[in-house]
Structures are given as C-alpha cells and as structure tokens.
Amino acid sequence: MKIRCSQSNLLKGITTVSKAVSNKTSMAILECILVDASGDEIKLTANNMELGIETIVEGEILERGIIAFDTKIFSEIVRKLPDNDILITVESDMKTRIECEKSCFNIIGKSGEDFPYLPMIERNNKITISQFSLREIIRQTIFAINENDSNKMMGCELFRIHENELSVVSLDGHRVAIRKINLNNSYPDKDLIVPGRTLQEIIKIINGGQEDNVNIYYTNNHILFEFDKTTVVSRLVEGEFFKISTMLSADYKTKVTINKRELLSGIDRSTVFVEGGDKKPIKMNIVNNILEISMASYSGSMKEEINITKEGEDLMIGFNSKFFIDALRVIDDEEVSLYMVNPKAPCFIKDKDESYIYLILPINFNSAS
Amino acid sequence: MKIRCSQSNLLKGITTVSKAVSNKTSMAILECILVDASGDEIKLTANNMELGIETIVEGEILERGIIAFDTKIFSEIVRKLPDNDILITVESDMKTRIECEKSCFNIIGKSGEDFPYLPMIERNNKITISQFSLREIIRQTIFAINENDSNKMMGCELFRIHENELSVVSLDGHRVAIRKINLNNSYPDKDLIVPGRTLQEIIKIINGGQEDNVNIYYTNNHILFEFDKTTVVSRLVEGEFFKISTMLSADYKTKVTINKRELLSGIDRSTVFVEGGDKKPIKMNIVNNILEISMASYSGSMKEEINITKEGEDLMIGFNSKFFIDALRVIDDEEVSLYMVNPKAPCFIKDKDESYIYLILPINFNSAS
Lengths: 369, 369
Description:
2 copies of one chain form a homodimer. The first copy, chain A, is α+β, with helices and mostly antiparallel strands.
C-alpha cells in the first residue's frame, strides 16, 4: 500500500474514528485503526464491537492495500508532523514508512485481515435531522443517564420516533430528561435504545450546524449515523425502556415562573456547602412572590431570595442542587416554569410546548433544616 | 468587624494570598486567610510558615476588627457571588454574615489571634526589577529544579547578585539552567537560595509588565517581594549552593547553529516513541551541514534531517529529549547555538552574551541505536 494525503485531512480522520477505539481490551487489533486503500478511496475504520466509526480521508492511492496501525502511535506521529503532504508506504512484513518533509518514521503495522469490519446495516428506515439538532438534544439529556447502575437501561437514551416527532429520553432514578424535535415527515412508531457511550462519542465528532444534515438509519439491532464522509454504527440495547408516560403528569398545585439565570446562580451558590459526595439538599420556600433558597451544613449556611410569579399554593420543598443545576444549564430560555404538587411529588421544569421536560424528584427537606 | 468591598477586589485579594495557604497541615489555622481590618486598611494574609503573602484590598472599614476564615469556603463564597458590593459583618462568637445583593451566607470564623503573622523583615538590602523580568527569569529556569531529590538544594533556585547583575540558577543533576539580567545599580555580592515552591507561586500572582516594578528585599534568612499592594515573604534555605563556575566551560570542538523551531519540532517528534518514564535517548548525528535526529524503540523508529551551520568537528551524541525540549521552549531566539566537546561532555545552549546558558548532560548514544 502506498498513499498520499495532507496531514490535516489525515489527522481529522484519525481524530474522528479514534472515538471508537477500545482502550481496555485484550484484543490488540481493537486498539488499532484500519487504513483501507484497497478500493478507490482511503477509508479509516475503528471498531470496539459496540461502536464502530468509518470515515473517508481525501488523498491519493498510489498503490492499493490495507493495513492496521496502533492508534496511539499512529495518531501521535501524524499529530506531530507539519501540515504538509504525508506519504505512507507499506513494504513487506507490514513494515511501514511515514514520510513528511524531512521526517521519516518507521513502524510495523498489523494485518488488516484480522480487523472486525463494521456490520452491514440495511438502509430501509431513515430519519434526517440537522447535525446541530442531534448534538443539542443529546447534550441536553445525556447528563441524566447513569452508566454505573446495575440496570443497564439507565446507561442508555431512548430515541422514540412517533409520527413526525423524535423524543430523546434519559433517566437515572432521581430525574428524567426529555427533549423533543419535529421531523420533516411522519414515520412508523419505533423505540431505539442507544448506549450512552455511543452518544457521548457522537457529540464529539458531529460538528456541523443547522444546515448540515445527519441521516439516521435503524434496524432492530443497530443504529447508524451518516454525516459528511463519516459513518457511525452502534449496537442497540435489547429490551424495553422505562414507561415514561406513567411518570409524567400535567397536574400541579404550584407553578413558579422565574428568571433562569437568577435561579441557576442562586442554586450554584448553595453548593459552597456541598462537600464531595454529600447530597445535602437545598430548601426552596415559595411564599407569595418570593422563592427563598436556603442551605445549611455544619460549615455554614446560606439564604437567598428571588422574585417570582406564582400560581397556586405556597410550598416548601427540598432538592439535590446538582440535579437542578444540570437541567437549568441546558435550557436556553430566559424564563423557566416549575410545576409542583407537594414536597414529595416530582417537580417538572418544562416549556409550554413541552419541547423539553425535566423531572426532578424532591428530597425530604427536613434534613435540610 | 464590619467591612464593605467589591466582589472583584476581594476575589483578587483572596486569589493572591491563597497561594500561600497550606493544604496539608495539622494546624487548621494555616488553612485560613486572615482578614485584618484592625488598622486603616483591609489586609488579607496567608502563611504556611515557609511562604507568606499579604495584600491590601480596597474597601471601607465600617467597624474595625480581625478574623480568619477557612480558605476553601471563603473563596468559594466570594467567587460565586455577583460582582457587586460585599458586606462582611462579624458578630459575637466569630459568627459572620457575608451579604451581597439578595444572597446571605453565614459562616463561623476563627480567632485572628492564633494566626502566625509574617516575620518582620529589615528593609536594608533591596534590588528592583520589572515584574515582567522576574516572571520571565523564573519561568525560564524553574523547570530544571528537582523537588523530589534528597538533596534539597535541587528543589531551590540560586539568586546570585554580583555587581550590577542578577543570575538565577537551577539544576537537577542532569542539566543546569542559568538566566542573567542587568540591574540598574551595582550591589554587594550576595547568594540567596530560594525554595522552588515560593517561585512557582510568585509567577502565578505577579502579572505586571515591563513598566511595573517589584522590590526584592533580603536578609540572611528571608527574601521579600513587594509589588502593587502585595508582599510575599519566603524563608531562604541555609547552606551553600552547588559550585556553578566549575561546571561551565568555554571550550568546544563542535558548534552548531540551528533554527530553534525546527530543532524543537524534530525533537518533539522523536517523543512519539518515548513511553511514560522511559528515558530512551535521541541520537544527534552532526555531519557537515546536517544534523540528523534519530530515535529507535521497540515500537518503531524515526529519523529527521535539519540544515545547520557547523564550526569544528563532526559528532554523534545522545540526549534525553525532554531536557532539550524544556530548554528550547523557553528560549525566544529564532536561532540557537549548541556547543559540544565529545559524546560524554555536556552540551551548552547559550547566546553570545551568555544572558542564558542551558547545560545538558548527554546519554550514552549506544543505547540509542
């Protein structure tokens, strides 16, 4: 194999696929990137058996061939080379020369034959959304998964296609995050349970804007994201996701409308007294048109008042401040509305159209005294 | 005590003095910042018994007093408050209220009486240099100290005042870094051995430019840096520093003049094959007007040629790449000159005036084959 491509193109390709490289595996080949120039294009692939990424690198094939390189060494070499043409020549016994300007590296590749190719996915079912939208709905929900829970569903997000709407749902037992976007067409109902790790990697490599699309194909076992010259294939998790509809309720007895930035700063200030893993709750005391945040610990206490618009009853309720901060940080609205029933029922932060719903379970506020 | 000052001023003061707060101590008072408003100014102090910092915060004293606060809690509170006036009120039993806009924090302070004041330093001997120069000469030498060596001198820098010159010297047994600057006057000879930790903290808080001065006072036991409204006092290390003059030599058999950026990039590329603590040397082969850098390890090899101007003999010599990179990174010249004698004698990187001298010991290059 002999190929030539620019350092910047090659580095971009390596960075993209390296998100699917396994870093703890007993199979050395899974720590590699496959460089496939056996066809008419230079294709890089990485695959950790759960997630696989493939991307095309612009360049010239001088002699067809295929080889795998250890990701760490290969990416370090390319990263440190100047931005100029790189020539990669594979000689007998996988001996490989990587040349750029006056630098010459020699490394030993691995046979491409052992490399696990990405599964072939039937491209029958497809939805198309903008790269921006996909990145945003993941970013705005992914914090509410719990990958360490024994229930592996909590480490996943539900992608629910219903008519012309895509909902993305995550939950960790203490809170639920839901984001919805409209699709251009109506589609048959489908639930896809996508591993959180896949989505965490996707948002690192999907950099396009509102105008750049991503095609999402799905079968019963796989989901495939196709954008620019990159294909990401992930296995889906089998089983049934939590019943979300039973958790949601439109009833409320107290509705608070509040400036988001003020609420976020106030709650953030309360974290001064939260030490490490301590889940000391903040107390919210809603009286007339004031929401008072307070927090007390052995090292001190804080109290803060925020003006609100209130509908319904006064209420005193306690929360884990982290859950509120996580949700408020990903809401772009200037004002947010909180819907509550009583100190033991969940609080909902949602907009009128329910394009987002954040459900947060309260904590017994007596421990917050 | 009752004081009022702006959040930004107070935060700046806390950030400055917190560099001298002890983080591993059995004396809780050393984890505190002293707020002293017993005089006409609000003074913050931290002191870990080796290094002490004192700074004046602009503000209003409504009621005189003095108190110490746990640094972590105090700085977190102030950092999270909005940039507006902060009112600090100490009531009976050290109970303290910190108020800003609609936020109110309550914490318990500690008696200022237990706090170790900074030592009184006689201000007889003084040199003055720009804050920029002080920061630069420290930054350009501090990487060559070794704080973990059993010889504690290696964890220090020598400040040598000789006539109208200040030299700063550090060394770790494998290399020596020397920077010199001119002073405005001539002074009696003096050697000061300053702990590395003091200097590492100083460069974080001394932000002024060429026009901003720092006064450096010294006695036999202490060094004091005075700039803006801040005073830093450090204890000096007793004893005698290494004899530098015996290590330096003007003799050479090979002089190489080379583009600094090219040399740095080339050596940096060789580190691809340096794993963790591995000290595999790079080999430099100087033949006619070419310097060839090469490196070989079990995972691969690299080679690179750089054009040079050479005086004297050809030479093959091996180095630890990190030592070269550290030195080259802090040299601002476009071209650098290397002076060498043989593969076992130190290499000197220095300019004509010897405003900088970096001595690097070679490594047996046979192990670099």
